[in-house]
Amino acid sequence: xxxxxxxxxxxxxxxxxxxxxxxxxxxxxxxxxxxxxxxxxxxxxxxxxxxxxxxxxxxxxxxxxxxxxxxxxxxxxxxxxxxxxxxxxxxxxxxxxxxxxxxxxxxxxxxxxxxxxxxxxxxxxxxxxxxxxxxxxxxxxxxxxxxxxxxxxxxxxxxxxxxxxxxxxxxxxxxxxxxxxxxxxxxxxxxxxxxxxxxxxxxxxxxxxxxxxxxxxxxxxxxxxxxxxxxxxxxxxxxxxxxxxxxxxxxxx
Length: 253
Hints:
This protein has one domain (3-250). It is 55% helix and 0% strand. The chain is built from ten helices and no strands. It starts with a helix and ends with a helix. By secondary structure, the protein is mostly helical.
């Protein structure tokens, strides 16, 4: 089954879940919704396809990489490849996400994602294309040398999409003790909290919250933050094209 089918299926699943069991009262057609629809089409299909082609071409252009590849997972069963890939990928994403907040020039691009002020599942796809380049450069190329199968890479992408949608969704669905392992809307909403509402640089986990609990970046109060965003968000552009330009303009100041 091709990825766009899974993407559409998850979109329908979480759209229904947000109608049936919402956590917050939000309008059906919230502000910025059409813009985020454009983001999901651009980031999930067009730009994602270009990045995949570019990565494959880069690897083919360096035939000498094969002798130094570790091939650690090449002969392993599919289920083991998927488990290892899911955990390793998610740990690396936790580290990269941390960098996006702490390195000033990376934060300029990551601000696009934090410009969401009404959170729902589709907010998962609001991010600058440079952010995707950073993730892919630090994830896919190094792990390609470990010999994971294309099948494992595909299903890892499907799982990551599910957990990304879930973490951003406006759904009241707690995980109980599993909150110490998996990310959730109740935890991730505080990652997007405005600095006026609580601590910043918390809850960097993508699919797994495990890393936040291990490294002391977890924050999970019982209530919701009354405001999302970052300092100065009132002046931040809320238009797709302006948001694509905004980080570059900052380099000139």
